[in-house]
């Protein structure tokens, strides 16, 4: 039964109870019927009643309930509070209080609870399997549901959530806390409210949550790719360009960001680091398809060096078990046992082996059937060095020697061919490195100290590998100083090889003093002289202004001082 039908029934019954003779009140449940329904659906009712302050306030307005509300408020758990609310009705005042009691439930977004007593049916209470599903999947929902995607407001407009519900969710500080509160509130709603929630998820680009709850749709970002995003977050924050490119618009046009998401990014203002933080926070709570499209969007906005941060490198090797006795049958049995454990552990993100691999920088691992051939996915040269040093042997031996009776007789060796190491090293060498932090710092210092002394025009920009959008963003600045500042900011997020390109361009355009400052962090003699001249002129102007003010107000009698610089 829908909430609309329950609502119409409640209005009908409550109106008749108030306006007709006492005999007409039989449309509401009798005391016996109320007790029978409460007993039959006790567990569902206890988890469906939401003891909000608003509900308790309305119940307190009923004279008979007034002295009992304080006892409800002092209860430690929501379940105990719900039980006390359902126990409010007393035998002697039942006829006078059942109508206001039903109305209070309805007026506070709990018509599905009131409807159980009116219709004698639990049809619109959330089913046991859906209730249990929400809490079985809670840990996954905390990681993947985006509570700020607009779904909360939408559910309020659909009358699934009340204003009080919305305020309780938004009062939470973190995304995880908001999701936890949202699930808690939703679990007390009706079956039709749950179905509306599922429908709204699709409309707010949260189809991966539908997948989690129903198995239909696109899955969320894989644990492997979440690990990559976490490991690469710091580098992406300092290298991703979302201000002076079409990146945000591209994410929107490709369906990676919704219009609501785009507004959230733009609402962070002009600070690149904060915009990038918001983009990554939103991406974490999207689907695997969104992640794949995100990498493409980086490439389409000439950020291949950032896109490569998210592309793992796969290598593989053969696992060998060394036993003291080296009996072939014993080795076969041990390898079979180990293979089963590896297959299980690699699928568990919280397993000891996966935690150890993650600490090494390995974002994915697996074992092939039929032999103990293990593969690993990693991101950086540092992790490749770890693999070459053979540190996997110690990790696997320490983790799995406990499977066997004579633990000291077991050691494990991962054999990765040298050709594999060479192939992985070649892949890494072909990638464009991010701008080094020290080069970023030099560019930031130049923007702060010498932006007045750098001439930025089309001729200079033609020497640099910048797209038209970036060039326009620089040239459209109102002052030459601002053009130089934006150029430094743009270059700080380019590949490291373009740092030298900038220095070459400046020297080619006879701006050697600026190139020298960026290289050394210190001004040349010519640049120092220029700066001193500017500072002296500024000082003289300030003295002249001060003297004129003193003369104007009669503090000096020497007449008005004029000085032309």
Key words describing this protein structure:
565 residues; four-stranded antiparallel β-sheet; Death Domain, Fas; mainly alpha
Brief rundown of the structure:
This protein is mainly α. It has helices at residues 3-19, 31-40, 42-48, 53-60, 69-73, 78-86, 94-107, 111-119, 128-136, 138-144, 151-157, 163-170, 175-186, 191-203, 207-214, 223-239, 247-253, 259-266, 272-284, 288-300, 304-307, 328-346, 352-360, 381-388, 391-400, 418-430, 437-449, 458-462, 468-475, 480-491, 497-508, 512-520, 525-552, and strands at residues 313-323, 362-368, 373-378, 410-415. A 4-stranded antiparallel beta sheet has the order 2-3-1-4.
The proportion of residues forming helix, as a percent range, comes to: 55-70%
Distance between the termini: 86 Å
| Alpha carbon gyration radius | 34 Å
Q: Total strand count, please?
A: 4
Helix/strand/pairing category: mainly alpha
Largest sheet: 4 strands, antiparallel
Q: What is the 3D shape?
A: flat
How many domains make up the coordinates? Answer: 6
State the helix count: 33
The level-1 CATH class of the largest domain: Alpha Beta
The assigned CATH architecture of the largest domain is 2-Layer Sandwich
| Strand order within the widest beta sheet | 2-3-1-4
Q: Tell me, rounded to a whole number, the average pLDDT.
A: 89
Low-confidence stretches: 1-26, 559-565
| CATH fold name of the largest domain | Alpha-Beta Plaits
How much strand content do the residues show?
5-15%
